[in-house]
Design goal:
Blueprint (H helix, E strand, L loop, with lengths): L1 E6 L10 E2 L10 E2 H9 L2 E6 H10 L8 E8 L2 E8 L2 E2 L19 H5 L6 H16 L3 E5 L7 H13 L9 E6 L2 H19 L1
Parallel strand pairs: 1-4, 5-8, 8-9
Antiparallel strand pairs: 2-3, 5-6, 6-7
Helix pairs in contact: 2-6, 4-5
């Protein structure tokens, strides 16, 4: 009756489910959910993979999603989550925010998708740019890129404390782990919720 699909390259979530930047296909937008629905005759919803992780954090009583940014880095890609007033912030047509568009000279996908020479600096840049704009008090870092490089996160924390901008001094910066199983579970729950709505 209904199916939910997660992909790292979703720009519009839901029944339109527009995908882009697929390395296997031409660089063009594809209305993925509509395409699958038309072929299978099953109502289809597409969500960004990072959305599942944001759901997992939102449902975790130990995580403060009242005012937070979430930077998910690893597996070759980067996702950004924003929580304000305990609500997940999405763009037009439920689009998922892309921090890869920030003007970082070495590129966020290259620097945070996997750990490398510029990863620590890229993380500092992302936090120092985004935290003051949204006036958040919590930063959560997730994914595999920093899994074996917790020291780099500690270095970023130290740089934030030394920064001239006082708004960066009181940030709580936490590594929440890789958590792939956790957000897959959330997407399964979302599948059930969507199916109930359809019924």
């Amino acid at each position: 009756l209904s199916t939910v699909i997660a992909t790292q390259a979703t720009i519009e979530q839901g029944e339109t489910g527009t995908m882009y930047r697929n390395n296997c296909l031409k660089d063009e937008n594809i209305e993925f959910a509509k395409l699958i629905s038309s072929k299978t005759k099953i109502r289809t919803f597409v969500f960004n993979f990072g959305y599942g992780y944001l759901l997992a954090l939102h449902h975790n009583k130990d995580v403060n999603t009242d005012s937070a940014i979430v930077i998910q880095c690893g597996e070759g890609s980067v996702a950004l989550g924003i929580f304000l007033d305990n609500k997940m912030q999405l763009g037009r047509n439920q689009s998922f925010p892309e921090c890869s568009h920030l003007p970082y000279p070495y590129g966020f996908e290259n620097s945070l998708g996997v750990f490398g020479e510029h990863s620590e600096d890229a993380l500092f840049f992302a936090i120092s740019v985004l935290a003051p704009i949204y006036n958040v008090s919590n930063v959560y870092i997730a994914g595999s890129a920093f899994e074996k490089h917790i020291d780099a996160i500690e270095n970023v924390k130290a740089k934030l404390l030394e920064n001239a901008d006082p708004r960066l001094h009181n940030l709580s910066v936490t590594y929440t782990g890789n958590g792939a199983g956790t957000y897959m579970k959330e997407l399964i729950y979302l599948s059930f919720d969507t199916l109930v709505d359809v019924l």
